[in-house]
Design brief:
The protein is 32% helix and 21% strand. The chain has a 9-stranded mixed beta sheet with strand order 11-10-12-13-9-14-15-16-17, sandwiched between helices. It has a 6-stranded antiparallel beta sheet with strand order 5-4-3-8-7-6.
């Protein structure tokens, strides 16, 4: 996590090299008036010390000023600390003032994706794909609420009895969701999802097992031929990660307009415009929703329009955009399987006032392929691209998704009934390139043939 002014990432929490020299001023002069462990045996700093540092830093604290403020506060209190203890104190105070307090070390862990707080002593983290409970004491339910309110304020959002729920993005990109009692029972419930700033390439996802090696050429061809893609899967299945890797394959002379509710997508591309929604202000006005941003994106000369997550009435605007000559668009959506996509689209279309017939007509021409990811394994820690489907219509006119390529949990690949339609979209057998034809056909043959 990268640090910035007002937020404690790993770099922001670095202790200045000359801190030891400045710390010596705490123990010089007329002699120490008190000797204290800072932080104490539990790794915490007394609340009055943190409060004094907050007051000294003012309403807009900067990470680089925390060290000086801590030294000044300890000098004023006459507390004697050595250089090592002072360095630890600065880190703890920085977490308390600028970061997520006792949760910050977990957010800094590169293997952690989620930090979940159900109560003061009920903290869970998902680390390396495994959800485990950690030994961490956050104090009292009141302390958890105070932490949630402070984090919401850091994100520029309000969290109180009049507005007891918040879904926001912290300055470092971490997604924050919080619910206050009585909505969440006796204690405030916090959910923090870490968004890593480094994008992954398709080659890295292949090496990690997320994408089967033989699917790489097929995915690359989909991007190069400007196919409209719908990336689906359950929560935490890697939809955003895969989409970011695919967008990195877009030619550098193309302009990508990216629309999200909470910015999460990190794309390694030279020409990306990020648009994000905005909630209402304290007066209850000023909201800008996804459908509005989609309409604005159409006027921004996009080569590709990308919707970070489609989960509401904005599906109408997305379908309209992809049916008016904007090729190469992408979106993500929650779904249990590729075959479930029509039902999910129908549910979202109903929110936008679209009939089933209107949705089938628009979706069948808007989306070329569905890329479905799945979580598997004993702890659901393995994420992989499990299905590639094509969108079409049955003889009855209903929307359907036919599986073109399926990947089993052990990596076996097979072609499904949707393969001919996908092959036609990719030009396999029609582009006059024997190498390309052989490569793509071989790619989907799998270890057991066509299955």
């Amino acid at each position: 996590m990268t640090g910035s002014a007002g937020w404690s990432g790993s770099s922001a929490r670095a202790v200045p090299h000359d801190l030891a020299e400045r710390a010596s001023g705490v123990s010089r002069g007329d002699g120490p008036r008190s000797i204290a462990r800072v932080p104490d045996e539990t790794g915490r700093v007394r609340p009055e010390v943190v409060a004094a540092v907050r007051a000294r830093l003012g309403p807009a604290p900067a990470a680089e000023d925390v060290g000086d403020a801590v030294v000044a506060v300890l000098q004023a209190r006459g507390q004697l600390v050595g250089p090592r203890a002072l360095a630890g104190t600065v880190r703890v105070v920085c977490d308390e003032v600028l970061g997520a307090g006792p949760l910050q070390p977990w957010l800094d862990d590169p293997l952690v994706t989620d930090v979940l707080v159900n109560g003061p002593r009920q903290v869970w983290v998902e680390r390396a794909g495994e959800l485990v409970r950690v030994q961490l004491d956050l104090g009292t339910p009141g302390d958890v609420r105070t932490l949630a309110v402070r984090l919401a304020a850091t994100a520029g959002r309000r969290l109180d009895d009049a507005s007891p729920a918040v879904d926001a993005r912290l300055p470092d990109g971490t997604r924050l969701h919080a619910l206050l009692p009585p909505l969440a029972g006796p204690c405030t419930v916090l959910s923090l999802r870490v968004v890593r700033p480094r994008p992954f390439s398709l080659a890295e996802l292949t090496a990690a097992g997320t994408v089967a090696p033989r699917l790489g050429p097929l995915l690359t061809a989909l991007v190069e031929r400007r196919a409209n893609l719908l990336v689906t899967g359950a929560t935490g299945s890697g939809k955003t990660t895969l989409l970011g890797a695919l967008l990195a394959l877009v030619a550098p002379d193309q302009r990508i307009v990216l629309i999200e509710e909470q910015p999460e997508l990190v794309v390694d591309h030279p020409h990306v415009v990020h648009l994000a929604t905005r909630g209402v202000n304290v007066e209850g006005a000023g909201a800008v929703d996804l459908p509005t941003l989609v309409r604005h994106a159409l006027r921004m000369r996009p080569d590709r329009i990308v919707l970070g997550e489609c989960r509401g009435g904005e599906v109408r605007e997305v379908l309209a955009a992809l049916n008016t000559g904007h090729e190469g668009g992408c979106a993500t959506m929650h779904a249990n399987a590729a075959a479930d996509v029509p039902a999910r689209l129908e549910a979202l279309a109903a929110l936008a006032g679209l009939t089933r017939e209107a949705l089938a007509a628009q979706a069948s021409s808007a989306f070329d392929a569905v890329l479905h990811l799945r979580r598997d394994g004993p702890d659901r820690g393995r994420r992989y691209l499990a299905e590639i489907g094509v969108v079409g219509r049955r003889a009855s006119g209903e929307l359907e998704v036919q599986v073109a390529v399926a990947v089993s949990a052990d990596g076996r690949m097979s072609r499904g009934s949707g393969w001919p339609a996908l092959a036609e979209r990719l030009g396999v057998g029609h582009d006059g390139s024997p190498a390309t034809v052989t490569h793509l056909r071989t790619a989907t043959a799998g270890r057991a043939g066509d299955g």
